[in-house]
Write a structure and sequence with these properties.
alpha/beta, Rossmann fold, 3 domains, elongated
Length: 550
């Protein structure tokens, strides 16, 4: 239920607050008084584009706020999804700053405009001439027929199952595409893997190989130079070891005379031993260094293959090659895993398709019966709206493929007059007829499902007299099970309302403003009489107004 609307600094309105009640509320006023301003303000709450030009005072903020009692609606999922505090008394607000920047709020929490629009669309249904375009929307026709299904949950079950079916299709297509790509690359990846496996990377020490290659490549030079070193160490006459022995003998002769000389002797002895050990190791090393062309060729071949793959894969060392090898090996495993996943997805898709097929069959069957019931109910409202000879029929035919709403297509055919063949509604109904057809449909839906608050913008366009009275009676009947606001020019409709507001325009100090105020019973009589006969209210008009209210 819409409890209040508060409008500040919008169009010609300085500040207006409407406290609303259940039932039927009429908003009336002279042509040009600003009734459309109310609709414009509500449009901002529904997410329409904001414009700083719509402000009365360009230097002040424009605020449109509405408070709803939503305790009868199960909207907790919406509030949880958007991380909002749930409150049975929920307020939605739209603010427009002087610079034109717009902000939206739900229960004082800033939200994206789309979030505000999503909630507003749930709780408010504004029906204007533009809304007559709903007759061309497939989803609207399905919603109307499905309101009469024997099993009300059937269509929702189908929608959920169809979404699941589409999701499985999407996942299967993605898996098949991924597998296709893997298979296209498989031969090349296997070639790369075999190339790396032949190198036996886990057993390969690149630095050791490079060191051995360098040694073998320069074996003659190494032996030649080491021979010179050994000769310098071991020559019996002038070798370093022989000279150290001579020097040590000299020191030993005097070492007993001073601790420092003893230390010199020890150091000389240590140097001698170190050089003697070095000489022995050089001898062993020379024994190991042998020219081996076949071994050198094998090492060069191994390193050449290693350098080739490193350059090819743009890596620096064996560790990175091993990582690449493991990755390539996992691709082969992924192929097997993908094939298994595809098999599971295909099984799930077949099962979901079978389930959907049963739902579609049952849905089509129930829609056949529901469409007839819907047509009969709508035709009852036609009679109440002065379309006594009008007929409507829902035509079901199979859809070429399943879609989000089922396996059917629904068209509606209409005839306003007896003896005239049924034809597509959008082609044969006049503007006034379409308005009443839409009203009949909304009235039918109001008896079948909980509708949002319905706001009618001049539903009486192009009608009057007895038809206007019948429209008022229909609105009154609808308001018994929903809150309904109507902007109207007709006294016959306003007189049926439980509550009435008057929109008026005033000029003060050269400034034009619009006000909206609630009317008591006497004021309603005056207003209705003015709607009937104009400013000069006759006794007959006043009597007619009293009669309308009674």
């Amino acid at each position: 239920m819409l409890k209040s609307i508060e409008i500040t600094n919008y169009a010609l309105i300085q500040h207006v607050r409407l406290d609303l009640h259940a039932g039927l509320t009429a908003i009336t006023g002279e042509t040009g008084s600003g009734k459309s301003i109310i609709m414009g303000a509500l449009g901002l709450l529904l997410g329409e584009r904001a414009d700083s030009k719509s402000m009365l005072n360009a230097s002040m903020k424009c605020v449109i706020e509405a408070t709803f009692d939503i305790h009868k609606k199960d909207l907790r999922a919406f509030f949880v999804a958007h991380d909002l505090d749930h409150d049975d008394q929920t307020t939605i607000r739209r603010e427009i700053a002087p610079g034109g920047k717009s902000r939206a709020f739900i229960n004082d929490t800033p939200v994206a405009l789309q979030t505000l629009k999503e909630l507003a669309d749930i709780v408010i249904d504004i029906h204007s001439q533009h809304e007559n375009n709903l007759i061309t929307e497939r989803s609207f026709r399905f919603a109307l027929v499905d309101a009469f299904l024997k099993d009300p949950a059937l269509s929702e079950n189908y929608v959920d199952s169809f979404r699941a079916y589409q999701q499985i299709q999407k996942e299967l297509a993605s898996l098949e595409s991924e597998l296709d790509q893997l298979l296209k690359e498989q031969d090349y990846r296997m070639f790369q893997l075999n190339e790396l496996e032949q190198l036996q990377l886990e057993r390969l020490d690149q630095k050791a190989l490079e060191s051995e290659r360098d040694t073998l490549s320069h074996a003659d030079t190494i032996l030649q130079q080491l021979s010179l070193v050994q000769a310098g160490l071991d020559d019996d006459q002038s070798g370093a070891l022989q000279q150290l022995r001579t020097m040590r003998n000299a020191l030993q002769k005097v070492s007993a005379f001073s601790p420092q000389l003893t230390a010199f002797d020890e150091r000389l002895q240590s140097s001698y031993l170190e050089l003697r050990e070095l000489s022995a190791e050089l001898s062993d090393y020379c024994d190991k260094v042998q020219a081996d062309p076949s071994r050198l060729e094998a090492i060069n071949a191994q390193l050449s293959a290693l350098y080739h793959v490193q350059q090819k894969h743009r890596v620096q060392d064996v560790v990175e090659l091993i990582e690449l090898e493991n990755k390539l090996r996992s691709f082969a495993q992924n192929t097997v895993s993908l094939e298994e996943k595809i098999q599971v997805a295909q099984i799930n898709l077949t099962a979901q398709k079978s389930h959907l097929d049963k739902l579609v069959t049952e849905l089509t069957k129930q829609r056949g019966a529901a469409s007839k019931l819907a047509g009969k109910e709508i035709e009852k409202w036609f009679k109440a709206l002065g379309l006594e000879q009008a007929r409507i029929e829902f035509q079901l035919k199979p859809s070429p493929e399943w879609h989000a709403l089922g396996g059917d297509e629904i068209d509606w055919l209409f005839s306003a007059n007896a003896g005239v063949a049924l034809q597509p509604l959008s082609k044969v109904a006049s503007g006034g007829e379409i308005s009443r057809v839409m009203l009949a449909i909304k009235a039918t839906l109001s008896q079948r499902k909980a509708l949002p608050i319905l706001i009618l913008d001049e539903i009486d366009q192009g009608v009057g007299g007895e038809v206007g009275k019948k429209i008022g009676q229909v609105l009154k009947a609808m308001s018994q099970c929903m809150q309904l606001l109507t902007i109207t020019h007709l006294a016959q409709i306003a007189g049926q309302a439980d509550h009435q507001f008057k929109v008026a325009k005033h000029i003060h100090n050269g400034q034009t403003t619009t006000t909206v105020r609630g009317l008591n019973n006497d004021e309603r009589i005056e207003e209705l009489a003015e709607m009937i006969s104009g400013k000069t209210k006759s006794e007959a008009a006043l009597a007619n107004a009293r009669e309308l209210l009674n």
